[in-house]
């Protein structure tokens, strides 16, 4: 099966699984894969297909169908001015709140801006008239495409209905061949779930609550930006579920919270024995690849999102999206939770031994000890790259601190200033854990005018003289170019820089000296010098020790 046929087959099938009953087609060449898929669905009795020769008339026909039924209608056309002729109906749908799913066929990127026939700029063609618009991208014959296509369509369907009905736009690029080639093979099954849409979006009706089926084999995952955390942690605890919280999810507290899920989920034997029946996600997870793999394998993945116009689904595994979820209390055997907690304690103990035996100041131990030693009521601001990942892997559950990080876009910029702002708004003591590049990137954040308020903020800078996270990525194997283009070495005198801004400075000489180093008042900087290569080795030792301890437990 060629990629164009595969993409069109899946897009149409997912629209039908979402509940589409009518589609309107204005014929053309580049849209042939979609036209053939719709025709096949009509022959099977799955859809009512309406064909019109004029795109403007076709789009208003779809508008009328959707306006009367209240159900999204698909509009399909070829590339070029055909897509532009949909615009008046899209505007009307936007202004009157009518749900439409507009699929405009397009040329692939290599033909755009070349003078190729019937090629115009169709990306975000309808501007603000579309509730949501995306360029689907050219289909490829590789695993993972089907999940992408199906989740994309179910997201589009949901956004056409909620929070306010209106038009959404999928710009679909096709390379030739555009018609079936007779070969039915593909690298992965094209089928979706027979029960319906890939992701079911629960409409925002007053008082609507999604009730999770009663099960002991559930998991609560908490990521950045989570809301109503205490409520859902309490519900998960009563249901006997483990809580897998990223540090900035601020749900890593209590008896059900784990420390070492990153390591546990990296052991295939553990994963095989601990497959959850349902995973409920709060906020946006994204720090741990093993955790994302758990979401990908979940039988039922429910995403709790206050805003149904956008929701986090980084591995496109969400089966349901809702604004409110009820986790039922399940009485009986608590072996599920005990198994998770026992393995977590074993893995965390193995990692602690590695950190405690490592000489000098190390980045993971610094993160562990800092999070554990802060006084109650403190705020800890973390850089969005390596420091937050260190916290994710080694931070023990505790109460009484608030962890903040710029994980929205996970950028390096503005972190000193963000930490200062957060400290000024926080009512207790504040601390920050930054890498040297993040610190240098926003060193101007230390410039405070003589009449400006001073934050009570201790900034701990991990200085490994470069970009430490790259040493843990595959790029590190490229020994020749690595240091120059990834390691980004720097030799800035941090003490001189800090003192030039009139800010107190301390150097952390030994891991045990951390409590003394961070004590004080006002804005101050603590430098902890580490070695990037040694840090990469240490992370490897942590992983090996944790995995071995878990395997021994399971043996």
Automatic annotation (TrEMBL):
Gene3D superfamilies: 3.40.50.970, TPP-binding domain
Keywords on record: Magnesium, Manganese, Menaquinone biosynthesis, Metal-binding, Thiamine pyrophosphate, Transferase
Keyword Manganese annotated: yes
Transmembrane segments: none
Record domain Thiamine pyrophosphate enzyme N-terminal TPP-binding: where: 7-124
Enzyme class: transferase
Essential cofactor(s): Mg(2+); Mn(2+); thiamine diphosphate
Cofactor annotation remark: Binds 1 thiamine pyrophosphate per subunit.
A GO molecular function held by the record: thiamine pyrophosphate binding
Ribosomal protein found in the keyword field: no
Protein's GO biological process: menaquinone biosynthetic process
EC number: 2.2.1.9
Catalysed conversion reaction: isochorismate + 2-oxoglutarate + H(+) = 5-enolpyruvoyl-6-hydroxy-2-succinyl-cyclohex-3-ene-1-carboxylate + CO2
Positions of the Thiamine pyrophosphate enzyme TPP-binding domain: 403-518
Pathway assigned to this chain's UniProt record: Quinol/quinone metabolism; 1,4-dihydroxy-2-naphthoate biosynthesis; 1,4-dihydroxy-2-naphthoate from chorismate: step 2/7; Quinol/quinone metabolism; menaquinone biosynthesis
Main function: Catalyzes the thiamine diphosphate-dependent decarboxylation of 2-oxoglutarate and the subsequent addition of the resulting succinic semialdehyde-thiamine pyrophosphate anion to isochorismate to yield 2-succinyl-5-enolpyruvyl-6-hydroxy-3-cyclohexene-1-carboxylate (SEPHCHC).
Protein family according to the UniProt entry: Belongs to the TPP enzyme family. MenD subfamily.
Assembly and interaction partners: Homodimer.
Record's protein name: 2-succinyl-5-enolpyruvyl-6-hydroxy-3-cyclohexene-1-carboxylate synthase
Origin species: Actinomadura harenae
Name of the gene this protein is made from: menD
